[in-house]
Write a structure and sequence with these properties.
This protein has 264 residues and is mainly alpha-helical. Helices cover 47% and strands 2% of the residues.
């Protein structure tokens, strides 16, 4: 296993940073579980002092979502920055972060800084993640979600996903989904999104969506649904909640009992 924010971040949050081994080409590969633990410990501590003005956000949840549950990271780790082809470099992962985060946004700059700090940490053991750098400048304006998006509140969306997982006798692996939604709404792009599969969940929703000229990247709820990778346990509940015609606080009937699907 190989291998940075999510910012991420991010996203950031990337599993590029995932692996301690990632940035040390001559170092032996670490186990996946260990590398994930290291990234999920390092990046939230690194991002928090750089993003002080983004309040009431659990960077732990944002990092975990980006690293463990997105098709973006899976593609970046296994194809774009594949270690076996000597592409597992900081530069490659900086490009991967640019695929996911709004170009030149505050979160983008913070994740890039943490990515480089993580590289230093891996090579020297020096951990400067706790506020050694000043707060990141604002940069360009964050992503704008269209006003014609379906009505959604982050608390209801969170409850809908939780209820959907309970129907499958599962728990939500993300402690603070509203935090994930808040950051994705403003700073994430729909990288490696499978929009067709998202909209196939509900034909009536798809018709209304297309009529308004929307895509998965237009709205935060469908952007989240498009980002989730195929083997994540979040896939079915999030897609069902994102494509419900109304803002729901319970799992849509389209979920049913889906215990026979992937539960990664």
């Amino acid at each position: 296993m190989n291998v940075a924010f999510l910012l991420a971040m991010f996203a950031t949050l990337t599993q590029a940073c995932h692996e301690k081994v990632h940035y040390r080409k001559k170092r032996s590969t670490e186990s996946k579980d260990l590398s994930i633990i290291e990234i999920e410990n390092f990046f939230p501590r690194c991002l928090r002092p750089k993003l002080k003005t983004i309040e009431d956000v659990s960077f732990e949840s944002v990092v975990k979502f980006a690293v463990e549950h997105t098709a973006w990271y899976e593609y970046a780790n296994n194809i774009k920055c594949r270690k076996s082809e000597n592409r597992d470099t900081v530069e490659c992962w900086e490009g991967a972060v640019a695929d996911l985060l709004t170009d030149d946004s505050r979160v983008f700059f913070a994740v890039i800084a943490c990515l480089n700090q993580f590289d230093i940490f891996v090579q020297t053991g020096d951990d400067f993640s706790n506020g050694e750098f000043a707060e990141t400048p604002e940069g360009k304006k964050p992503v704008k979600n269209q006003n014609s998006c379906p009505p959604r509140t982050k608390t209801n969306f969170d409850k809908c996903v939780d209820d959907g997982l309970k129907k499958r006798v599962e728990t939500n692996p993300i402690d603070d989904m509203p935090s994930v939604a808040k950051v994705i709404e403003k700073y994430f792009k729909c990288s490696q999104c499978d929009c067709n599969s998202v909209l196939e969940v509900n034909n009536e929703f798809a018709k209304s969506f297309f009529k308004k000229g929307l895509t998965c990247d237009s709205c935060w709820s469908t952007r989240i649904a498009g980002l989730v990778k195929q083997d994540s346990r979040l896939l079915k509940p999030i897609r069902a909640c994102a494509t419900d015609l109304e803002d729901v606080d319970v799992a849509p009937a389209t979920l049913g009992d889906t215990r026979d699907v992937n539960v990664g």
